[in-house]
Structure prediction request, 318 residues.
Amino acid sequence: MAHSIARSAGTLLPFHPGSPRSPYRGGTLGPSQRPEIQSLSCSFFSRLRALWPHLASKPSVVRSAHRLGAGGAGLLLSLGPSRSTDPMPYLVAEEIFPTKEAITARCRNILTATPDTTLVADDSVPFLMALFQYHNEWLEKSSGGVIGISTQTTIQGTRCFVLRRSIGDQIDISYVHAIRLLPNPRTAPLLPQALRDFRNAAREAINTQIYEFRDRELRRSLVCPYTNIIITRENCAVDHTPPQTFDRLLFDFCLNNQINPLTVRIGSQGGTVAVIEDQFILSSWQSHHRNLAQLRLISRIGNLQLPKVSHPWAQLWQ
Prediction:
């Protein structure tokens, strides 16, 4: 059985009783000396068990302990004072925040900029919609579809957000409660910047297909299935019908063609628009999308209410 013993602050050292190399004695030991190691291991752990009540009462000495093996025969110790680590950032609708306090400040700024009964600015809607979906009463409050987000002042004098629903009424929703329920943490580093650039460039590559579909569909009278509002050029969004979402199509394209998205050459058009520079990958992706994408026209705010499905992007480069 393998045991790990910490001999210096914050350092884990492996110890395998049957191993030819011992952390207690330098060099490589021969077979005749290995019984001595096993005997030393047994003696050490016997003393450790006797001292454990004393050590466990001193957090500055024992940082963590975990049992190993069947029946908890071994221990994994980490000695030394606790070390704080920098908090992982939160990711809300592609916006990165270092702390929950920063998310709270973003919400307060939106409230300050939005007078009562006025709809919040379009560029703030994706952030709020993504945040509110962490509220444990989101499904109930968004029932029937949300067609807008406004603000109001409560009878207590505090400001809050209000969901305007397609059924003709409105209901308040607490951003404070939604932030409290955010997973801790929502790790932005799970999505490397190179992957973000690749996804943005892949979207840019199919824009012509998207615009052609949009213009063709707008010739018909359409109602959003999520908000029941009439779709117009000003409020429409082109969505990839699940399960063949945009990310699903792009992920499968990379997987089937053995493409590592982190190594695809991405350029910049006008200094702001990401583009795929590899012409073979560009044309192949455009053909893949044209042949497999199932598009539909829905309202922009309805699109923001759709659940987001994650994909195992990391397996493409690991």
